[in-house]
């Protein structure tokens, strides 16, 4: 095999069109057409009396005129610039970008699920209610809890739901005025302290030990009659299982507080550990992370929250109640202790169908195997890369994600950001970088269980090649990367803080594009 030339030995040829083969240069849609030109022929309207009560548009629409092929090509080309789990490995740590089986999509499009409306009479959606009940059964069984709230629309929304239930339970005990503190580890997801603060709690940070775990004695020292809850992620954001979680839960309960578990990493322990058995009172479940519903733009999302018997009475409405063979959707508080409504309707039916399809396809043993494979994949990467990349926990078994740091890059002239950008040139989405904050120069990789051994080997080989380039002083490969993406290195800070959201044509006409 011919050795691939290093970057310094190559030079991309200039093209007149700006295209690079099938990688088409795609400018703004305003740069393709003119505002004074229409792509279709429309006769001027005859005189008519507006019926909009003075609300009709008074100025031109301001859109460029394009023919149908031009418009279609523009948006198809844009879509081809998206990176997705369907095009390649998505190793974002803490995000669990796993494959979405197409069977799930087929089920979600079945009549009776895809075409129902939340305001239909309950008598016409009995099948949908039964599906929700079946999903609820699986979720409480897998977590060892008492009840589940299906209404939250995403993980952070689920956190809000769980903490609102805790707040309601504290108020019911007459302790709302005294229990104002929520404990959160330094490695917690940023949504944890944000959720607690938004509900009026004061967040007290809990440091982790050198082994990346929260120690019971540290929690015990922070507990008191003013503490409402602890928010702990398990497995945590360092990719490690909190081995003292049972003791921590005991201490929290003895202090009269509640245990909220961030369920973002449930994908590592489904079928192996039931959080309720560990002492967890509330935990949200990201259906897109654990049960393969679409992530991000493929939403809308769903973040059900499971509740222990201590919190079940305070679940939000609406919720399902079964009387014999009859299912009812409880829509108002009345004789309940519910903290109330946090969403207009019952949840996201499409996500419920997809999640239940995934669960039933796997069964209990299959779900456990998926967890085992996720952990196996992460540890495979840990072992394959530990001789070229440093990690604060390299010698310890990790869970579903493996954490590296930047100690091995010291004095190389290459940063974690440079390394991540160079991965784009290799056709791979970068891992999560600079998180968790407790590890300097963090690089958090989560391969998930849905990647084959062959694909993981290619990923390992790619990272090793990049690592050897760093060690060999090939700085140029990294500092300007990505070189092969539609856009090269951007000033992301300025783009975020000073976004340009309105197109303004260049003075004197269009400026020629550089190839």
From TrEMBL:
<dbReference type="InterPro" id="IPR049316">
    <property type="entry name" value="GDC-P_C"/>
</dbReference>
<dbReference type="InterPro" id="IPR000192">
    <property type="entry name" value="Aminotrans_V_dom"/>
</dbReference>
<keyword id="KW-0560">Oxidoreductase</keyword>
<dbReference type="Pfam" id="PF21478">
    <property type="entry name" value="GcvP2_C"/>
</dbReference>
<dbReference type="GO" id="GO:0004375">
    <property type="term" value="F:glycine dehydrogenase (decarboxylating) activity"/>
</dbReference>
<protein>
    <recommendedName>
        <fullName>glycine dehydrogenase (aminomethyl-transferring)</fullName>
        <ecNumber>1.4.4.2</ecNumber>
    </recommendedName>
</protein>
<dbReference type="GO" id="GO:0016594">
    <property type="term" value="F:glycine binding"/>
</dbReference>
<dbReference type="GO" id="GO:0005829">
    <property type="term" value="C:cytosol"/>
</dbReference>
<dbReference type="InterPro" id="IPR015422">
    <property type="entry name" value="PyrdxlP-dep_Trfase_small"/>
</dbReference>
<dbReference type="GO" id="GO:0005960">
    <property type="term" value="C:glycine cleavage complex"/>
</dbReference>
<dbReference type="InterPro" id="IPR020581">
    <property type="entry name" value="GDC_P"/>
</dbReference>
<feature type="domain" description="Aminotransferase class V">
    <location>
        <begin position="176"/>
        <end position="296"/>
    </location>
</feature>
<dbReference type="GO" id="GO:0019464">
    <property type="term" value="P:glycine decarboxylation via glycine cleavage system"/>
</dbReference>
<feature type="domain" description="Glycine dehydrogenase C-terminal">
    <location>
        <begin position="370"/>
        <end position="470"/>
    </location>
</feature>
<dbReference type="InterPro" id="IPR015421">
    <property type="entry name" value="PyrdxlP-dep_Trfase_major"/>
</dbReference>
<comment type="function">
    <text>The glycine cleavage system catalyzes the degradation of glycine. The P protein binds the alpha-amino group of glycine through its pyridoxal phosphate cofactor; CO(2) is released and the remaining methylamine moiety is then transferred to the lipoamide cofactor of the H protein.</text>
</comment>
<dbReference type="InterPro" id="IPR015424">
    <property type="entry name" value="PyrdxlP-dep_Trfase"/>
</dbReference>
<keyword id="KW-0663">Pyridoxal phosphate</keyword>
<dbReference type="Pfam" id="PF00266">
    <property type="entry name" value="Aminotran_5"/>
</dbReference>
<dbReference type="GO" id="GO:0030170">
    <property type="term" value="F:pyridoxal phosphate binding"/>
</dbReference>
